[in-house]
Amino acid sequence: MPKEGKSLYSAKLLINDIPVTVKSKRIKNMYLRVRAPSGDVEVSAPKQCSLNEIESWLFERHDWLIKQRERIAMQPVQPELQFVSGEEHKFWGKVYTLDIALKKRGASVSLNDNKLQLVSLPHYDAVQRKQVLDRWYRDQITREVEALLGIWQPRMGVYSSGFGIRAMKTRWGTCNIGSKKIWLNLELVKKPVECLEYVVVHELTHLFERYHNARFYALMDEFLPDWRERKKLTNQFI
Ligand SMILES: [Zn+2]
């Protein structure tokens, strides 16, 4: 990390819709950072660099920037959730207030208007309450994926051998071309359902084309013409 030199001026740039703050400093090299959890991009540049030079330097690192922002979007924004009443939790892109009820048996979760009601056993700590909620999330996303595959597999004329849900740190989904099995990130249950649909179609498209090449994107355009907006939504910090 460079020493935090005093900023001589600062400017804003847009690199393919990604807002970037440029800070001109008395330094030798350009430095780039993506801040968590906001995904804000900041570049520190030597004072003799023009905005044009900075812009083309950023465009060369565009793919890296996208990857970093995707990685940050996947990290839970509030790692310190306590699983207590009043806390906000997400489900299909909406924010719900957690409402904890204590009962001797029958831990469960249900939705009630804007409330996510979690029945916890009296001795459960945050970790155990999280397990109850994750189990429910897993059931919900499983049901949704089954429905989506029911629509998309016949529509695309391609069939997976099955799917699994798991917590993944760096990807929304993967597809094992050999076994034709699809894996989806449990975190998708917190995003709007259009995001899950986008990832399902993306992974199914891999059954036609292994690589992210022109043929792959042409197929995506055909199946899901608004996939780019959905991808953006998936990686948004909401
Ligand atoms: Zn892919």
From TrEMBL:
Pfam families: YgjP-like
Gene3D superfamilies cross-referenced by the UniProt entry: Metalloproteases ('zincins'), catalytic domain
TM region(s), chain numbering: none
Domain of life: Bacteria
CDD domains tied to this protein: M48_yhfN_like
Ranges where the YgjP-like metallopeptidase domain occurs: 31-235
Protein name in the entry: M48 family metallopeptidase
